[in-house]
Design a protein that fits this description.
Length: 399
Amino acid sequence: MKKILTWAKDNWVKVFLYILSLSVIVFVSIYNLESITSSKLSLQEIGSLESAKTISGIINNPLYAPFKIVEYLVINMATGSIYLLRLVAALYGIATVILFYFLSKYWFSPLIAWLSTMMFATGTLYLHHSRLAVTSILVPLLLLAILWATWYTNKAKNSNVSIIIFIAILSTSLYVPGIIWFILLALFLQKRHLLAGLRNSSWIFLTVSLLLGLIFILPLLYAFYVNSSLILDWLALPNNFNVKEIIKNIIRVPMALTIQSQPDPIFNLGRLPIIDILTLALMVLGSYAYGIRLKLMRTRTLILASIISWLLIAFNKIDYAILLPFIYLLAAGGIMFLLQQWYSVFPKNPIARSSGLLLVIIVISISIFYNIDRYFVAWQHNPATVESFNHPVPTNLVQ
């Protein structure tokens, strides 16, 4: 304890920034959760809550079970509080932001991780999906968890602990539709490191770990046995492959991100592009920065995972929330590229270096304030939003 206090005293600026940043993240995630929609729910939220109101319903359809189980507990403990029903997604959202910080800190630096994390936590894509009683926030959370787990497995000194964590995250992730493709991608790209970790563990330990992982997903396997139609939903594949419609959707994805989105008053404001222009500019710079580093594992991971996400959205099975990690990892790459270029011109001038950092912070701050205003002011008072959120809590969800 004394060592911790001494470290905190010697690094009080870092401690202050951590506390301040976490406070901002928590505030934007939980502030005004209920009254922002005049204490009313959308049909999407009602459908999500209905699927979590009974244990039998969760067993019959265990997709998104990590969300549904917590929501089930809230439904049975609360008295129809919309705030508490939405708080489940908000808490998962906070966990998503924290995971993003640790991953981007590993990929880049603490400064770039902090700047990109604040953009992540205040972006409208995050706010829309982490502040409603819907399951979509689980997708970016578990994507980040898989990326973090593969890194931790490579770096951990205790291979047994890292394998337990890796299997636990993979087993949990299997309950979320579409995640199987990213698990297969992670296993393929990291097979050499993972096999090295497996060789350092005893076969008894591996057998027990795998058996525990199998037991954990037994409810999912049972549901597939009882209702095989769930398998397509779990794979996030369409029931009928309409090639023409899929091609149209593939084109619509970048259009929605950058130019004009389809009307969706639940998760967006009007037909505005999902990404603001400043974040988009950083993404373009980040794409270039990654492009000149194609041999890096993170670059190949980002490219392939983004392509998979693009296709899953085009199949109309997964929402745009799946792109959250990749959008802001690209933006983080853009921040890194800007600072690197600036510091290469002024390698020793402290005033010039500080001025460059200040300019980047100002640009990011403009993006942050724009997104906060777009969500908390413009979206809240948009007539289409008011019309979409006009349902009270169903009586069968009130204990």
